[in-house]
């Protein structure tokens, strides 16, 4: 039995234990920053996420649309539809990879389980998408979507760095008096560019996908995203922001993730600000495990998300 296999809990399903031993680590931050290797790293990361689409066992369709000058995606699945419910999705990818189409396996189950209409927003990736460009692009898409979906219940959904961009955007919209979503779902959110969470030190190396080397890689990534900026700026690291007035939040994270600390701190900061926040920690699960639809743990997580969305 391999060392990796011995470190996986027997409480997990057999398929999940096997999947953890098979998953590949994301490219290093140095690989992303090097213009010679960046393109290859992006293709490799995108390929791994696109493979997750093959696990989707229900009918779906993605349509490319342009919203506010940005290439976006709408999602449709078979089954009942709710014309009164709209999902706004911001994808992950560490500022350097991913797209609404590449990361579709994250959001498609929510569309299928709720019947909601859904739009996936895009933003420029690094090195073109340096702060505050992604915030400005997501802002334009969201405001355009508000006009198109007036009168509907709105739920915003962000994963990984998309969760950080979404949370920073929520703070910005609140301060501007823009209509906020009724609910927010954050899966494995990355919300601290300083890399201060304790889990960057205590469980680094246990996630098959994501290593942060005691938080140092997080700092390098955010410095690449926002060179010369104070990483405590809430529009860069929203964990340091003011939470009052934000919508109810559902936060998902796996117990193997170095971002477990970010999720815990976020839920507590929201609670202290009087926000209805719910933190779900999934034992033994890894970064963005929701994208692996064939795993029973992913299905359980998505049903929890759907219940939260339907409750709006």
UniProtKB/TrEMBL annotation:
Keywords: Hydrolase. One of its GO terms (molecular function) is hydrolase activity. Residues 87-291 form the Alpha/beta hydrolase fold-3 domain. InterPro entries: AB_hydrolase_3, AB_hydrolase_fold, GDXG_lipolytic_enzyme. Gene3D superfamilies: alpha/beta hydrolase. Transmembrane segments: none annotated. The keyword Hydrolase applies. This is Alpha/beta hydrolase fold domain-containing protein.
